[in-house]
């Protein structure tokens, strides 16, 4: 039995619907129906296609995962070679590029478009009559692998484009296949649980996945696509910006972060901005791409060798490098935490030379099987502390040995122990010089009592000479001025400066003092919360674990740590000494009730606000008792949306989290 016209119409309608839902879900990240409803539509379509094989169509939404595993990919030639970009790393080189463009274009005015440089895999997609006809890797730029089946599994790649543009019958879209960091992390976690080999980074796993011969496996991996290039036969295209718009209308995902720039100064500003903001993105970028906007001008500029003269990659300093692990030492923190540290052959990463990097803890070393002598990858992530992120095991030297955690503290020789359920080891001796110094440094730190001039070296000296045994002793130094002036490398002036800084610290508000005391799990934010409810040291010390837990944001772990801290005799003595020194041990003005209007509310900031810097907005929210986090989840109360907001806005919409534009946000904090 063949399908009647009504059935064919129904099948068509189902396909259109599913296409639209795919688009809403995978491109816009704004789904409008429940997953169950989507699955129901998909099943209905699958059944109809099974029943009426003659209506089957390769661009049907059911055909994303089709085809049999291939033995080998076919080689295909690109109609127009896929050029690569020449790389620049600093402003001078970009200015050279700009000068060349200007001199080649003569008197003509022109604009640049700046885009993010996605750290993924470049692919080419050819469409005929609105339907995907071929997908290929870049290969050597002239020929690549035909991987249509694999690319069709990527849900954000349209199998059939939206609408019809007269004359746009054949076109090619180029873009990047990539993986978001969070998807990558989750995928690796699952692989690990399943006992499979994990991938090194999102780009490698995207590249590795596209090379798989079985599209069914590819379909299970969280690949995404973003388009950044359009070429059409017999269809007039004007400018890159228009092309991006056209790509969007056709149903392709494009980045929301492209920007038209009128001068090379604006280009550099864009580069700097994204160098700072790259961690806000859910995916990796390794620089920005600068393109001359008008296609007519691109043509005039042409290409040399393998790179166009109308575009350039303006890269960020590499944040990863390979080097050799010379040794593993242990560092002792202010609460006795023992952190294994990688001693490295010095290597240049992300703008500075790195010779030490964190190895986190015993489990981390064991899981990656990091061994002294190994070639390792050093990475600078969002935080400035570099870490060893991978081992090049194939380069391992014969006779290397697994790392074994020492039994004793490298500073005082006391036994070290690892509490159950914790990843860290601790030195059991609270008088261990490393802990003593660490506590004093923490006390003097900028975010705590802010005692200028009291850095690591000075603390070393003062503790070494027995002039200071804990941070309360700092307030007795004024009486030892003569002794200090006589010290090596010290003079009248520097001693005076230090004593003044110590004196001034007595004016620091109580919440800073509480933070400076170095209670485990009590950071600056927690200290502020505690002081908001217990405005004096006496009330904090009198509070029970249950009372502390009443405070929004304070859980059992923190509450217990505070109670334990103040139950210890030597800490009670510390409080007495601080009181004698006339350090602030209560809040000066009590906060008015209306002032904590945002208490317990969690905010995420995205995009640029006109009236505040990010730091200012954050401060305002925190002053009113709110909290700012970096990623949107169901627990987020508000997403504050500025200009050029990114994926966080999409995420907020997806999760139904409330969004505030700048005007609404300003009203809220007033
Ligand atoms: S345009 C001729 N735009 O960078 C211009 N490329 O070496 C062709 N890439 O292989 C590329 N983000 O993989 C362009 N926004 C972007 C890009 C981008 C990443 C990659 C692409 C290409 C390489 C250039």
Short description:
Helix content is 37%, strand content 20%. The protein is of the alpha+beta class.
Description:
There is one protein chain. The chain has 6 domains: 5-65, Helix hairpin bin (Helix Hairpins, Orthogonal Bundle); 87-315, DNA ligase/mRNA capping enzyme (D-amino Acid Aminotransferase, Chain A, domain 1, 2-Layer Sandwich); 320-417, OB fold (Dihydrolipoamide Acetyltransferase, E2P), CATH 2.40.50; 433-507, DNA polymerase, domain 1; 510-580, 5' to 3' exonuclease, C-terminal subdomain (DNA polymerase, domain 1, Orthogonal Bundle); 602-669, Rossmann fold (3-Layer(aba) Sandwich), CATH 3.40.50.10190. It has 670 residues and is α+β, with helices and mostly antiparallel strands. The termini are far apart. The radius of gyration is 30 Å and the shape is elongated. The longest helix has 23 residues, at 5-27. The strands form 6 sheets. Strands 14, 15, 16, 17, 18, 19 and 20 form a 7-stranded antiparallel beta sheet that branches. Strands 2-13-10-3-9 form a 5-stranded mixed beta sheet. Helix 1 runs antiparallel to helix 2 and helix 16 (510-516) packs across helix 17 (524-533). The protein contains 24 helices and 24 strands. Residues 83-85, 115, 117-118, 122, 138, 176, 228-229, 289, 308, 311, 313 line the site of 2-(butylsulfanyl)adenosine.
């Amino acid at each position: 039995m063949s399908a009647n016209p009504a059935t064919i119409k129904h099948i068509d309608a189902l396909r259109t619907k599913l296409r639209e839902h795919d688009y809403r879900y995978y491109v816009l990240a704004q789904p409008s129906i429940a997953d169950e409803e989507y699955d129901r539509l998909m099943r209905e379509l699958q059944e109809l296609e099974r029943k009426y094989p003659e209506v089957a169509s390769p661009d049907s939404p059911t055909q994303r995962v089709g085809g049999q595993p291939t033995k080998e990919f076919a080689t295909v030639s690109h109609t127009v070679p896929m050029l690569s970009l020449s790389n620049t790393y600093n402003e001078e080189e970009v200015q050279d590029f700009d000068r060349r463009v200007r001199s080649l274009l003569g008197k003509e005015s022109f604009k640049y478009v700046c885009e993010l440089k996605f750290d993924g895999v470049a692919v080419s997609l050819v469409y005929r009559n609105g339907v995907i006809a071929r997908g290929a890797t870049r290969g050597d730029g002239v020929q690549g692998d035909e991987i249509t089946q694999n690319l069709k599994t990527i849900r954000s790649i349209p199998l059939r484009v939206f609408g019809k543009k007269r004359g746009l019958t054949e076109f090619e879209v180029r873009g990047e296949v990539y993986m978001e960091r969070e998807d990558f992390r989750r995928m690796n976690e699952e692989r690990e649980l399943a006992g499979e080999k994990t991938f090194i980074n999102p780009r490698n796993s995207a590249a590795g996945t596209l090379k798989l011969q079985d599209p069914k496996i590819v379909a299970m991996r969280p690949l995404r696509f973003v388009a950044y290039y359009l070429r059409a036969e017999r269809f007039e295209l004007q400018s890159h910006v228009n092309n991006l718009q056209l790509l969007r209308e056709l149903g392709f995902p494009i980045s929301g972060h492209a920007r038209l720039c009128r001068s090379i100064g604006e280009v550099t500003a864009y580069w700097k901005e994204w160098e700072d903001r790259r961690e806000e993105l859910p995916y990796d970028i390794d620089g920005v791409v600068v393109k001359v906007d008008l296609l007519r001008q691109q043509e005039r500029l042409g290409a040399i060798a393998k790179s166009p003269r109308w575009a350039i990659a303006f890269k960020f300093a590499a944040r990863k490098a390979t080097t050799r692990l010379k040794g593993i030492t242990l560092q002792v923190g202010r609460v006795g935490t023992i952190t294994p540290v990688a001693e490295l052959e010095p290597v240049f990463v992300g703008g500075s030379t790195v010779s030490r990097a964190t190895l986190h803890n015993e489990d981390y070393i064991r899981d990656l099987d990091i061994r002294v002598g190994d070639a390792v990858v050093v990475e600078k992530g969002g935080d400035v502390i570099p870490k060893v992120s991978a081992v090049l095991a194939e380069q391992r030297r014969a006779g290397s040995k697994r790392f074994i955690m020492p039994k004793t503290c490298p500073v005082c020789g006391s036994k070290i122990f690892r509490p159950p359920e914790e990843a860290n080891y601790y030195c059991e001796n609270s008088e261990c010089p490393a802990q003593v110094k660490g506590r004093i440094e923490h006390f003097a730190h900028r975010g705590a009592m802010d005692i200028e001039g009291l850095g690591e070296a000075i603390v070393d000296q003062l503790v070494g000479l027995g002039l200071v045994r804990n941070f309360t002793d700092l307030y007795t130094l004024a009486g030892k001025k003569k002794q200090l002036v006589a010290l090596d490398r010290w003079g009248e002036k520097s001693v005076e400066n230090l004593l003044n800084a110590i004196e001034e610290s007595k004016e620091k508000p109580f919440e800073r003092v509480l933070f400076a005391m170095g209670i485990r799990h009590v950071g600056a934010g927690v200290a502020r919360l505690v002081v908001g409810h217990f405005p004096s040291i006496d009330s904090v010390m009198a509070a029970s674990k249950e009372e502390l837990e009443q405070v929004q944001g304070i859980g059992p772990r923190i509450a217990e740590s505070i109670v334990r801290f103040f139950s210890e005799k030597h800490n009670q003595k510390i409080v007495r000494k601080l009181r004698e020194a006339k350090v602030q041990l209560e809040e000066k003005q009590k906060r008015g009730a209306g002032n904590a209007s945002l208490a317990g509310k969690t905010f995420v900031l995205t995009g640029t606000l006109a009236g505040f810097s990010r730091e200012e907005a954050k401060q305002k929210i925190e002053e009113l008792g709110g909290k700012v986090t970096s990623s949107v989840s169901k627990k987020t109360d508000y997403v504050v949306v500025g200009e050029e907001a990114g994926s966080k806005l999409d995420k907020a919409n997806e999760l139904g989290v409330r969004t505030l534009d700048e005007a609404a946000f300003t009203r809220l904090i007033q």
